[in-house]
Amino acid sequence: MRNNETGKIADALIGEAVMELLERNDAIGFDTMVQALREASMRPENRARAKEYAAAIADVRNYMAQASKQKQPAAGLWATSEVKGWHLNEPLSGSDEKKH
Predict the structure, then answer these.
(1) 61 near 67, Cβ under 8 Å?
(2) Contacts of residue 27, Cβ cutoff 8 Å, sequence gap at least 6
(3) Residue 82 and residue 80: Cα distance in Å, rounded?
(4) How confident is the model over 57-78, as pLDDT tens digits?
(5) Does the global pTM surpass 0.85?
(6) Domain locations in the chain as residue ranges
């Protein structure tokens, strides 16, 4: 978890996006997470958190870029040890295949 308030909220928004995808039985992947965050950010009740949503989307994209730079599938990256600021117990998948 990050120390600054925007970072903490962005982390929570990423978690909410994943939960929403699970509830809809959608595929969980980077692209679907970014899309879910974008859709949520456009809801009237969330417009005041535009900065936090932008930070959450940037976090997902940064993770994608880091996986690409290391030339290995994102599933091979453990977020807890490889990507600063992400605290997960499972590897992430770079594909949009279902993981639940």
Answers:
(1) no
(2) 21, 96, 97, 98, 99
(3) 6
(4) 999 999 888 877 876 555 554 4
(5) no
(6) 5-82
Can you state the angle between helices 50-69 and 5-23, rounded to 10 degrees?
Answer: 80
Contact criterion met (CB below 8 Å) for 13 and 40:
yes
Of the candidates 38, 37, 46, 3, which has an alpha carbon nearest to the alpha carbon of residue 18?
A: 37
Each residue's pLDDT tens digit, 8-44: 899 999 999 999 999 999 998 889 999 999 999 999 9
CB 34, CB 60: distance < 8 Å: yes
- Residue 56 near residue 36 (C-beta atoms within 8 A): no
Distances (CA, A) of 90 to 79, 87, 95: 8, 9, 15
- Measured in degrees and rounded to the nearest 5, phi and psi for residue 67 equal -65, -40
E strand or H helix at 81: helix 79-82
